[in-house]
Write a structure and sequence with these properties.
Elements: E1 3-8, H1 12-22, E2 28-34, H2 38-48, E3 52-54, H3 57-61, E4 68-71, H4 78-87, E5 91-95, H5 102-115, E6 119-122, H6 129-139, E7 146-154, H7 165-168, H8 170-174, H9 177-187, E8 190-198, E9 210-217, E10 222-228, E11 238-245, E12 249-253, E13 260-264, E14 267-271, H10 278-292, H11 300-319
C-alpha cells in the first residue's frame, strides 16, 4: 500500500528536512505541495517530481486521494491547518511547535483524540541518534542520579515572520523548544522556571531572540538552557548538551567530530560520529505507527507540555519573576 502525502509549506523545513526524506522512502508518494509564494512550491515540485502544485492549502487537505499531510507552514497557522486536516480525515505530521498557545495546542489534541487519525509533532531530538544514545546511557544509570544539565542552541536570526513575537513565539518557542522537550523527556517534569532575555538582534522587531533560563525539576535536578537568534550572521548553528550525574558526565556537541563524550565508570568514552538522519527516523516512526500500530516515542500532549515550558520562559522574562509552568494556560 502506498501512502500519498500532501506537503503544506515550501520553506526551509519542507525543502531541506522533510522532502529529501520523503522522496527516499518506499511506500510513500508525495502527491501535492502547497506553498506561498507559488513559485517556491513550483520549484520544489520540479525538484522532487510532485505532480500537484497549489497556493491553496485547503485543496490539499480536502483532496480525497491524500492520506497524510505534512504541516510545515509558519507557526501561527499550525492549529488552524492541522485541525482542519484532522477533521478531513488526514493523518498529520506537524512541525514543532504544536501551536503558539497552550490553549490552541490543547484544542488540537482534543481534535486528534476525537478524529480517529494519527497526529505526530516533529520534535526531532527524540530521534537524533546522539541525543537518544545519551538518554539511554542516563536511563541505564551510567551517570548515576542526574543532577545538573546544560543545553545551548544558538544561531543567527532566521528573519521573516520569526522577527515578530506574536507570530513565532520567539526563540524559546521556535528553536529551544527542542531542548525543553528533550530535557522534560529525560529528566521529568519542571516545577519552576526563571529566565532573563530580550530583543537584542537588529534583525528582530519584537521577538525575544536571546534568553538564559534555569529550570528546576521535580526530582531535584536543575538545568541551564540558553537559546539565541542574536549571533552574528556567519555564526555556525551550534548545539550543546551536558548532563552531569552522581557517577559521571555526558556531553553532546555538534561542533565536535566525536559527537558524544562520556565520563563514566572512571573512564572516558567517545561515541560517534553517527550517520543516521533524525528526520528520516521520525518519518519511519510515524509510518510504523500508521502501518503497524507501533506508537512513536512522543505523544501530542508532550508537544503541549514543551510549549508550556517555552511560554513559561517568555512569561518569566516579561514579568521578571520565577514562574510555575502550571500557570501557563
Amino acid at each position: 500500500m502506498v501512502l500519498r502525502v500532501g506537503v503544506l509549506g515550501s520553506g526551509f523545513a519542507a525543502r531541506e528536512l522533510h522532502l529529501p526524506v520523503l522522496s527516499s522512502l518506499s511506500g510513500v508518494e508525495v502527491s501535492a505541495i502547497f506553498g506561498i509564494p507559488y513559485e517556491d512550491a513550483l520549484m520544489l515540485a520540479r525538484r522532487f517530481k510532485i505532480p500537484k502544485v497549489t497556493d491553496d492549502w485547503r485543496s490539499v487537505v480536502h483532496d480525497s486521494s491524500i492520506d497524510v499531510v505534512l504541516v510545515a507552514t509558519p507557526t501561527y497557522t499550525h492549529r488552524a491547518i492541522a485541525e482542519e486536516a484532522i477533521k478531513a480525515g488526514k493523518h498529520v505530521m506537524l512541525e514543532k511547535p504544536i501551536a503558539l498557545t497552550v490553549k490552541d495546542g490543547e484544542e488540537l489534541v482534543k481534535a486528534y483524540e476525537a478524529g480517529g487519525v494519527k497526529l505526530m509533532v516533529a520534535h526531532c531530538l527524540r530521534f537524533w541518534p546522539e541525543y537518544v544514545r545519551a538518554r539511554e546511557l542516563m536511563m541505564a544509570g551510567r551517570v548515576g542520579e542526574p543532577r545538573v544539565a546544560r543545553a545551548y542552541r544558538l544561531s543567527s536570526h532566521p528573519g521573516r515572520w520569526f522577527r515578530f513575537q506574536e507570530l513565532s513565539g520567539g526563540v524559546a518557542v521556535d528553536m529551544s523548544i527542542h531542548d525543553l522537550d528533550y530535557l522534560r523527556w529525560t529528566l521529568g517534569e519542571v516545577k519552576r522556571v526563571y529566565a532573563v532575555g530580550g530583543t537584542y538582534s537588529s534583525d528582530s522587531a519584537t521577538s525575544i531572540d536571546h534568553f538564559m533560563a534555569t529550570l528546576e525539576f521535580e526530582n531535584g535536578a536543575v538545568a541551564y538552557v540558553e537559546g539565541s537568534w542574536a549571533m552574528p550572521r556567519n555564526f555556525p548553528f551550534t548545539t550543546y548538551l551536558e548532563i552531569a550525574g552522581t557517577k559521571g558526565l555526558l556531553t553532546v556537541d555538534n561542533q565536535l567530530t566525536s559527537t558524544i563524550e562520556a565520563y563514566i565508570d572512571n573512564s572516558y568514552y567517545r561515541y560517534g560520529p553517527i550517520y543516521r538522519n533524525a528526520y528520516y527516523l521520525e518519518w519511519v516512526a510515524f509510518l510504523d505507527w500508521l502501518n503497524k500500530g507501533v506508537k512513536p516515542p512522543i505523544e501530542p500532549g508532550d508537544a503541549v507540555e514543551a510549549l508550556r515550558l517555552a511560554l513559561a520562559i517568555n512569561k518569566s522574562i516579561t514579568e521578571g519573576r520565577v514562574v510555575n509552568p502550571g500557570e501557563v494556560r
